[in-house]
Amino acid sequence: HGTDSSYNEFQQIIKGHDNISILGFVSDEELNYLYSRAKVFALPSTSEGVCLVALEAAVRGCDIVITNVGGPKEYYANFAYTVNPYSVENIGESIVKALNGTNQPMLKNHIVNNYNIAHCVDKLEKVYSELL
Question: Which terminus in the chain has less CB density within 10 A, N or C?
């Protein structure tokens, strides 16, 4: 981290803001604690794959604000707030909506019911069967 110019620039931006921390690696126990304290998990990235951390946050009770770029938005049905990652206004508005929203526990149930191991294996078997 320490030699990366973006990291150093971010450190300077947050300097003096006691409510912002760069945690780096955290244990599973600490991660569970952090999720339990959070109402909203926001990941407005410009490039994202499956994004397991957002799925973890959803299962642990967070409302989700996710990028509208790439695949992650498709995992949440209509239970996540999708944002343009290049629009600070859109991100901020969506976080406020999520803070006041009521997508949980519907979001958690959607994730648990559609992305558990048994359901994923069934989907994979169907795809394989169709290919054969």
Answer: C
Among residues 99, 100, 116, the alpha carbon closest in space to that of 59 is found at 116
pTM for this one? 0.78
Question: Contact at 8 Å (CB) between 78 and 58?
Answer: no
Q: What is the pLDDT of residues 51-105, one digit of tens each?
A: 788 999 999 999 999 999 887 788 888 899 999 999 999 999 999 999 998 888 8
Which residues are paired to 83 by β-bridges? 67
Amino acid 34 reads L
Indicate the angle between helix axes 52-59 and 28-37, nearest 10 degrees.
Answer: 60
CA dist list (Å): 71 to 1, 59, 81? 28, 18, 14
Separation between Cα atoms, residue 14 and residue 21, nearest integer Å: 8
Q: Is the peptide bond before 85 cis (omega within 30 degrees of 0)?
A: no
Q: Which residues pair with 42 in a beta bridge?
A: 65
